[in-house]
Design brief:
This protein has about 170 residues and is mainly alpha-helical. The protein contains 9 helices and no strands. Helix 3 packs across helix 6, helix 5 packs antiparallel against helix 6 and helix 7 crosses helix 8. Bound molecules: heme C (HEC).
């Protein structure tokens, strides 16, 4: 698990440095090709008016300058941290003409859309973060966790302990 987190930060750092360059690794290249072939529009008819407005006046206007909209529409990004980072990367590409204000609006649109259209994916990502925090607390704050569990009702305590054990069973080597 720790390995995954370190890898994410290393990739993230590398991504920042390469923001201008067209260097992408093989896995990312494959993901981009696959996304490109997917749908190029989002059915926003059931989204709130302000979100529809961003879709029509910002996302579909500004994110189509260099590649089809199918790239962002079918990507694996879902969490706010992923969209914030990625849209910044797009903003800093030469000739993108995306202002800070527009980038913020588009980020909000992408996060809203992900939370509806990619809810399962988003929930899985959030679950991983929760798993990490629980695992970490059970190791680094063991005494504190035990103290808190002592104060819980027996059934609640059993549920919590079972969850902690489940996470250890899933990730411990
Ligand atoms: C100035 C050109 C440019 C503009 C404008 C632009 N992009 Fe991109 N985009 C790229 C390039 C080049 C790539 C190829 C991969 C890379 O360099 O990150 C890419 C790739 C992507 C990918 C796929 C990356 C992956 O790893 O799956 C997504 C998602 C994306 N863009 C979203 C957006 C969004 C959202 C906007 C509008 C805010 C946008 N792009 C505007 C140039 C641009």
């Amino acid at each position: 698990m720790k390995g995954i987190f370190i890898a994410v930060f290393v990739l993230w750092g590398a991504g920042m440095l390469q923001a201008q360059a067209k260097i992408v690794d093989k896995a990312q290249e494959a993901a981009i090709k696959k996304a490109e072939l997917g749908p190029r529009t989002i059915d926003v008819s059931h989204y709130p008016k302000k979100i529809r407005y961003i879709y029509n006046n910002y996302f579909t206007q500004e994110c189509v300058q260099c590649h089809p909209l199918s790239l962002p529409i079918n990507s694996d990004y879902a969490l706010p941290v992923e969209w914030e980072g990625y849209i910044k990367r797009m903003m800093y590409k030469s000739g993108s003409n995306i202002s800070m204000g527009d980038a913020k609006k588009i980020t909000e649109f992408m996060v809203y859309d992900s939370s509806v259209r990619k809810k399962t994916m988003m929930d899985k990502k959030l679950e991983k973060i929760a798993d990490f925090l629980i695992y970490d607390s059970s190791v680094r704050k063991k005494a504190l966790v035990e103290d808190k569990l002592q104060k819980e009702a027996p059934s609640q305590r059993a549920t919590q302990e079972a969850k902690i054990k489940e996470i250890h069973d899933k990730y411990d080597p």
